[in-house]
Amino acid sequence: MAKLLSQPVVINDLINGGVTLSIDTELTEENKGSENFIEDDYGSATEDDDDYRQMISPWDGSFDELRGQMERVSEHIYKRIKSKGKGEPFPEVGSFRVTVHYNAFEEYEKKPFDSTTLRSAPHQFLLGDVSMLPGVDAAVRTMLEGEESEFVISYQLLYGELGCMPRIRPKSDCLYLIRLVRKEDVGDGDALTKLEDKDRHSYGKVKEKVAQLRTYAKDCVGRKLLSKAIVKYTEAVEALHLCQLDSAEEEDELRNTMIALYTNLALLYNRKDQAKDALRMVNDLRRFCDVTQNAKALYQEGKALHKLGEYSNARKCLKRALELEPNDKNIQAALKELEATVVKHRRVEKTLWSRALGLPGPEQKEAIAEENNEFRQAALAGVLSFVEEETIDTYNLPNTLSDTELSVLKELGEQFNLKLSFDMDNNKKRYKFQKKSKP
């Protein structure tokens, strides 16, 4: 049996210098059965009917005869629908990512030269992307989601006059069996740049572009392009801030949009471990809603505070969020994670005090092995508790501190405006933090 292309041919590579065909020689367990059939085995009574039809060409005559049974889409494309789809056709304007399964055959060939079925994975591409074969792109544009169709596509829209030897003959028209699995509107990342200056203060004009930008940003999130999504969401926020509103209805609509945008930005900054920026987004959100009544915002605020070591405030935010959404598993998990962190830091702090008092034991050995960042977190927890407690002005520190630990404490003192000092006791330095007098 002839071997299969391991990746689709990229048309740009074909035009600019050619391509090297990569052939699958190793078979996955999932498709070994089909790949190992020899010519006489095709059509075996034990083979699943659907798989059988997918693995061999549905037409053994000439393509001219087949075109006679198809609908003419254009000069170079003929189509026959095998299974109808649903939904709306592709609009003339817009950007879409499609997911397709396909099998491609040359004339009079039973076996596909390219097949997502044998690769056990669908193919995704953006409509209009120059890397895709123009004939396949044009064929998919005629389909509805869920549709399965056959297309005879002329060589002019595929591999051209030269073909792609040895797999694809010169001037080779091809039969494509395509199933449109899914289509996704990916929006327009440059939508706002297409606004004329005179329209930049018109809420009606701007909101249309913002909708496209939000769709694009959401798609970026799905592809894990978080930084890009943040840029686009931020552009949307900035554009809406410039709008002039003419009615209470527009004010309500803008408020809801801003709430969604700022909440998404807080979420993305948290995913990128930029907790301070996440808190900045939540603070900006307060201009548009009461955050104490917004479970999603409280959840993001709690996560950010957790990362910054502000455990008490983080707990307040997450508990309030859970009151609003008692069945939310994400909030429940965040609270559980927070409590685990607090327990861990208390254990480390207790161990440090045991070291200071000269009490040996397993905890002491474990503390010695802890990395510097763990000491920093434990020290930060103690400092935050001290700062929050208004009735205490002095925080006594362990007697035994390494140079590295002392350096960490000095940094924390500067960060929280605390005075790090020591008293001499039997020729030993006993360190303490003191709150500086407010001017």
Structural commentary:
This protein has 439 residues and is α+β, with helices and mostly antiparallel strands. The chain folds into 3 domains: 53-185, Chitinase A, domain 3 (Roll), CATH 3.10.50; 203-350, Serine Threonine Protein Phosphatase 5, Tetratricopeptide repeat; 379-435, Ribosomal Protein S8, Chain: A, domain 1. Helices cover 45% and strands 15% of the residues. It is built from 16 helices and 10 strands. It has helices spanning 11-15, 32-35, 49-55, 63-67, 116-119, 134-141, 203-222, 226-241, 248-271, 275-285, 295-307, 311-324, 329-356, 362-369, 372-388, 403-415; strands spanning 71-74, 77-83, 96-106, 114-115, 123-126, 148-153, 174-185, 394-396, 418-425, 428-435. Strands 1, 2, 3, 4, 5, 6 and 7 form a 7-stranded antiparallel sheet that branches. Strands 8-10-9 form a 3-stranded antiparallel sheet, with helices on one face. Strand 9 and strand 10 form a beta hairpin. The chain is elongated and about 105 Å long. Mean pLDDT is 82; it is low at 18-49.
